Amino acid sequence: MQRILSAQLPAHVGATVRIAGWTHRRRLLKSVAFLIVRDAAGTAQVVVTDPAVRAAVEALAEETVVEVVGTVTANPTAPAGVELTDPTVRPLGPPAVPPPFDLFRPTLSATLPTQLDHAPVALRHPRRSAALRVAAAAVAGFRATLDARGFVEVHTPKIVGSSTESGANVFALDYFGRPAYLAQSPQFYKQLLVGVLERVYEVGPVFRAEPHDTARHLAQYTSLDAELGFVTDHRDVMTVLRDTLAGLLDTVADRAGPALTLLDAAVPPVPAEIPAVHFTEALAIAGAPADEPDLAPAHERALGEWARREHGSDFLFVTGYPMAKRPFYTHPDPARPAYSNGFDLLFRGVELVTGGQRLHRHADYLAALAERGEPVEPYADYVDAFRHGMPPHGGFAIGLERLVARLVGAANVREVTAFPRDLHRLTP
Amino acid sequence: MQRILSAQLPAHVGATVRIAGWTHRRRLLKSVAFLIVRDAAGTAQVVVTDPAVRAAVEALAEETVVEVVGTVTANPTAPAGVELTDPTVRPLGPPAVPPPFDLFRPTLSATLPTQLDHAPVALRHPRRSAALRVAAAAVAGFRATLDARGFVEVHTPKIVGSSTESGANVFALDYFGRPAYLAQSPQFYKQLLVGVLERVYEVGPVFRAEPHDTARHLAQYTSLDAELGFVTDHRDVMTVLRDTLAGLLDTVADRAGPALTLLDAAVPPVPAEIPAVHFTEALAIAGAPADEPDLAPAHERALGEWARREHGSDFLFVTGYPMAKRPFYTHPDPARPAYSNGFDLLFRGVELVTGGQRLHRHADYLAALAERGEPVEPYADYVDAFRHGMPPHGGFAIGLERLVARLVGAANVREVTAFPRDLHRLTP
């Protein structure tokens, strides 16, 4: 008899079926016992009246893996309107030890550090696993949207020879006796691959030796990176980003609907055209002094409220950040060179995506590095490629864990990461 | 005027269009000049007769990025039957420096080390970029097949606290002052996540500090990992692997057809049921002594010939490898405990995939480690999870670069890797 999933039970009323999963909860009443079995699709209620079966169920701790053969019986008061009656219950392994916290309650009562210490068990809670399903759907939507637009997926080195992008916050490692570093982003490689494939994306781990112990920093996170050539300027990148976000969110709604429901979450609509304000306007809207070089979190919140009020949008582009605050490869606004063709996308008043147009002329790279007093040598492989013809291009990067945390309303990115890595945490 | 790609030209005969790309080749004849422009879709021939335009083209080195506006004109002798006439040519950047080797010849004449030193340029050669497209399609097919079978994509830590799987060949790093290591595989995490999501897969980098300088070893490669719970034994895993390979190869044929053609490659058919032989039979078929503990490359080649001859199959499963040669988490064959429920999949006589059923009982892990004289402590987080109920499960891992190299007939995995990392190579 083929195993079926709990969610398939309503289609089998009257039939004898086989299910399997984890002992999620047992309720041992006087005349009847209920065994709740959890599987990948949800839970199933098993009604036990036979004394021998009851004795077997009593001996199984929560989380024991079991197989149940029984009759699917309609019962309007049971979850999903069906339950399994007249069951046989067979453990698929020895009895489990009880979990360190109750998994059957609507939310985990254990503190986040305790959950993280016991991640293999904590992730089994339906709210924790639902977030992993939302993440998987988000990544699938990211790829599908870009695939449909001629992007090619690439895989780039995570071990690099020089600590480039920011210098600080890199993990150093011993590479066959030589110093090496973990890549903080695929930025340079995705640009080089624009010279090969025109449009590329990568979904992969990036590493930041973040000394910050906050709710939104991880030492390893999953970066959704895209880069495209033959753009006019950053606005072409913003168009692709808008479509990518819309496709990503549609896929989350399509593929992770039950997970969203369980988390009381819904995907926000993405306007056909996301409102955009220049950095200088953004300062004025936020009531910040005109000479501020960057937006503070309070400014971003004010902008989020403004976008909702004025445009009915959860999303807002801020363009033209000052060059001084953007990385050296950022393309300036030709009309106002102190401002960049870089942008941030705010979601409900918090930065969600960073992107922009990049420099594409070799001489511009040399000038940009010289202006910042940085040597060319650590960037030589990267900068040299621009001598061989690169089109105007740009791109963006989305941090998967932050995106998912925002979507599902998690206060801490660790709640939506299977096995987070941070300043203090290297296990499990 | 919207830019179109070279492959779209035949649909626009008679129209004025805009294309853009790289100066792939110039042929400067007496009365006419030909400019071959390469873009993401292929190449386009531009016919230049106007002296001013010719002078501009003469000034552009190969690889300069250009935009061409011209009339699409049918010409049966031109590639794809069309060419652009009466063009204007505008560089999108300054002239490039000539590439270190000719990109317009059918194959790159530069040695592989030279190509790798100049990877951002070498990858522009159509044969090199075609391999990247095959890899992208393979990964897409892997995911699509597993998505359709209820697998959930996961992202696991690449920085781990103990050098587990094999002990040797790990990269050590400084993690906020503590020793840590780069993960050699997501093996333990994917198993733990079977306890959460039942069926999971991951596509991500794995790291091996391989002291071997061979045509098939990389220090970082892309591993396609899958793991599934509630199996009867390894044969359920083999069924999923068979379907995954078939779906992967179908997607390569669908999405990377032109790339395969360019590489003179074709995807092999996957039999509805891949022939399988037990390790003991395999030794006999290969003419090896019955007490050999493993298959040597020559044995694998003999088995590949046998599978082709006897079953008309490029693929052959070898099951039941001796336990002594498999990792400690391998499930033994209950009927013959010296042999495992592990398998290899050979493709044309070379190992392509390794997989098998894993242990799922806590006591079995303790016994397996004790038998090998290994301490439990480094594996504590992993082993402890099996106290909380894990179903019978198994999985497999496919090395992307080796798979693609085999598919396209590349002698060295570095030919199909954008920026390989090995014993000697840390850049670009």
UniProtKB/TrEMBL annotation, chains A, B:
Gene3D superfamilies: Bira Bifunctional Protein, Domain 2, Nucleic acid-binding proteins. The keyword Protein biosynthesis applies. ATP binds at R208, A209, E210, R216, H217, L218, E351, G399, L400, E401, R402. The keyword Aminoacyl-tRNA synthetase applies. The record marks P79 as: Important for tRNA non-discrimination. One of its GO terms (molecular function) is aspartate-tRNA(Asn) ligase activity. L-aspartate binds at E165, R208, T354, R358. It catalyses: tRNA(Asx) + L-aspartate + ATP = L-aspartyl-tRNA(Asx) + AMP + diphosphate. Residues 142-428 form the Aminoacyl-transfer RNA synthetases class-II family profile domain. Its main location: cytoplasm. InterPro entries: Aa-tRNA-synt_II, aa-tRNA-synth_II, aa-tRNA-synth_II/BPL/LPL, Asp-tRNA_synthase_2, Asp/Asn-tRNA-synth_IIb, NA-bd_OB-fold, NA-bd_OB_tRNA. It is found in: Cytoplasm. GO terms for biological process: aspartyl-tRNA aminoacylation. One of its GO terms (cellular component) is aminoacyl-tRNA synthetase multienzyme complex. SUPFAM superfamilies: Class II aaRS and biotin synthetases (SSF55681), Nucleic acid-binding proteins (SSF50249). Belongs to the class-II aminoacyl-tRNA synthetase family. Type 2 subfamily. Homodimer. Aspartyl-tRNA synthetase with relaxed tRNA specificity since it is able to aspartylate not only its cognate tRNA(Asp) but also tRNA(Asn). Reaction proceeds in two steps: L-aspartate is first activated by ATP to form Asp-AMP and then transferred to the acceptor end of tRNA(Asp/Asn). This is Aspartate--tRNA(Asp/Asn) ligase.
